[in-house]
Amino acid sequence: MAQREVVQLDRGRIAELTEREEKRLNERTQASRALFERGRTSLAGGVPSSYHLRDPWPIYLDRGQGPRVWDVDGNEMLDFHNGFGSMVQGHAHPAVAAAVRERLEKGTHFAAPTEDGIVVAEELARRFRLPKWRYTNSGSESTMDAIRIARAFTGRDTIVKIFGSYHGHHDYAMVSIGVPYDEIGDRENYASLPYGEGIPQSVVDLTIPVPFNDADAMERRIERLIEEGRKPACVIMEAAMMNLGIVLPEPGYLEAVRELTERHGIVLIFDEVKTGLCIAAGGAVERFGVVPDMVTLAKGLGAGLPSGAIGATEEIMELVENERVYQVGTFNGNPASMAAARASLEEVLTPEAYEHLDAMNERLMTGCEAVIEKHALPGYAVGVGAKGCVTFSPSKITDYESFKATQDGELMDLAWLYNMNRGIFMTPGREEEWTLSVTHSLEDADAFVAVVEEMAADLTA
């Protein structure tokens, strides 16, 4: 990203606009407030997941159709949140709805395989270039099982992850995420830090974080681990980081990681829970052309129904087939989830759909970049496939450390409020991105850009 002159934003003005927009949103969501007051008597925090929380209350949704959602106050919004990136198919897609409806009338669960599960596995193998698959019910289950399989395959315990990346809510993955800037530490020797309480330190110590976009630093850390007698079982990573907005891999980085892990006999796992089926038909494997040893999927796979998957080489998955590793789950391959996934893969997420997603994302990024340049804002637009964001930083973010050092969190908070008050439903949090669906239009992209323009004009007036 080329350096350019940027305006010095008035912090007082940001605070003033934030107060105004917060008041407006609160006034428009009184039914959500009432549900929150009711819900928190029985639901911890009034929400099913801590990632749904928002102060002073979360926004409760009522329904969705295509690219739009309606909250319980009746506010209609274009959905760029899409269930933390799960709904690239759009809400209530006719093909998915018909497949699920037909399946429900035949029975919702058997704890036995169905033909749809085979068809989905065949298509995933074709798209992701890995021959053998198993199912789970979430991204957390997928990464948890993949790590266990990698440990069994190598006979080793230590795992390497990218500092700042989120790979689910099991203990081995909840390490070195959301760390304050002054606690990040030495880049060559990042500390393993638990993400919240309840995670045993002995487990934390088995997970070693390294920086993104720095294969040399990863190699040096792995070599030190080998010298210590702690050769890693696996490297688990997103090919493009998707929880810092979006951080794309620098040219040659993924290829270098692939070579490094192959040379040392370390299993390379691409966590494609967010990228899989969203940034290309074959996810990051297709988009960046690097094939790992294992891939984990969830989110977009089930078209809104809980579902996940693990893909791997024949050699690795032989451990599962021979029951040296027990990869199990009562709801794995649930008939309704498999029916939804099959309809999505065969009828919705087609080559034409990905052309449409690319065109819309290009429209969004071009429009946002034009606004940023016009108003000399400290930021830039970045995206790939159905994913994108405006990152408010005066310099390019390449990893967690640069994200924490330069990202303007106050501006990100304000942008979320502007969107919510102008009919754009966005994922809460300073680290999240937009997700498009195949049902969005170019006009919807223009509506998003118009909100960015309004905020920029208010900030620089």
Describe the structure.
The protein has helices at 11-28, 30-39, 82-85, 94-106, 115-128, 139-154, 201-204, 215-227, 253-264, 283-288, 314-321, 335-348, 351-375, 400-406, 409-421, 442-460, and strands at residues 61-65, 68-71, 76-79, 132-136, 159-162, 207-210, 234-237, 267-271, 294-297, 308-312, 380-384, 387-391, 424-425, 434-435. It folds into two domains: 1-88 and 366-371 and 423-461, Aspartate Aminotransferase, domain 1; 110-348, Aspartate Aminotransferase, domain 2, CATH 3.40.640. β8 (267-271), α10 (283-288) and β9 (294-297) form a beta-alpha-beta unit. It has a seven-stranded mixed beta sheet with strand order 4-10-9-8-7-5-6, sandwiched between helices. With 461 residues, the protein is α/β, with parallel strands linked by helices. α1 packs parallel to α15 and α5 crosses α12. The relative contact order is 0.17. It is built from 16 helices and 14 strands. It is globular, with a radius of gyration of 22 Å.
